[in-house]
Amino acid sequence: MSQPFLKVEGLKKVFPGVGGGADVTVFENIHFGFEKGEFVCIIGHSGCGKSTILNVLAGLDSATAGNVFMNGREVSGPSLDRGVVFQSHALMPWLTVIENVAFAVSSRWPDWSRGKVQTQCEKYLDLVGLGHALHKKPHQLSGGMKQRVGIARAFSIEPKMLLMDEPFGALDALTRGVIQDELVRICSATQQTVFMITHDVDEAILLADKIVLMSNGPEAKIAEIVENPLARPRLRSIIHHEPDFYPLRNHLVDFLVTRSKRIAEGHLPEGYDPMHPPLVRPTAPAESPMAEVG
Ligand SMILES: Nc1ncnc2c1ncn2[C@@H]1O[C@H](COP(=O)(O)OP(=O)(O)OP(=O)(O)O)[C@@H](O)[C@H]1O
Fold this sequence. Notes:
By secondary structure, the protein is an alpha/beta fold. It is built from seven helices and eleven strands. The protein has a domain at about 5-80 and about 160-280: Rossmann fold (3-Layer(aba) Sandwich), CATH 3.40.50. About 30% of the residues lie in helices and about 20% in strands. It has a seven-stranded mixed β-sheet with strand order 6-7-8-3-9-10-11, sandwiched between helices. A four-stranded antiparallel β-sheet has the order 2-1-4-5, covered by helices on one side. A hairpin with an 8-residue loop joins strand 1 (about 5-15) and strand 2. Adenosine-5'-triphosphate binds near residues 15, 48 and 51.
């Protein structure tokens, strides 16, 4: 059988106890995989280990046990094959918008001419609607604009995988909606593979092909992998009229409110196998045939 594009095998993370306290196993026995071009969101309560997993996938942190493979090669450190977007924008304040992006592009392709680097930067800054702000410095930008620069920078290096840690968490709801729509558009144009942490169920429904559900920590588990049944293109303005929208939303909310805690207390679904977490696809019950009238 062919291997998935990204394969996570038996990941475990233990942090040493503070002040002589016992070590903490944040998560263990984490197995999942996904394919090229998929948009995967991970959801779980605060502290279950989502950022730690993302940092291990990025090669910025190492696991206590287990392995991550991307495209068949083990991830063992940071690489320009993986772009990362954090909640804080991490822009270099002394560089302009285009210089911030150009820094990443020239690191990725050191032999490119200045003109080619500039064209690449402008392409992705245009895609996020910042074509008019190329020469501004970060302090002249709103939070939403800074986050757009971070997204353009991550896309501009055309990474094999884009990792995003709550990229819209600090934005107001209106700005978040606009940038989510831009992200949907860019991802469908580029077929970018994305792994993203979010706390927002509606964001996951709008963006994701698959939603990984993590139970509460410590010793958090992948409780389930949920397949999003909603067809693309998805439009924020009408998505909630889709028959499968509320079955999916209710399933996710029910997990966060009730099941994530129950699983942490040891109530695992019958036959649960961490190497093959259940794959579920919540949909509306099939309509019963219309009763004949007359
Ligand atoms: N460097 C560290 N040393 C010790 N403990 C750590 C360290 N980094 C994270 N932790 C602990 O590991 C657990 C998981 O942290 P992590 O940030 O991965 O969780 P998370 O699910 O991303 O949380 P949130 O949703 O709040 O961002 C937390 O209990 C955290 O306190």
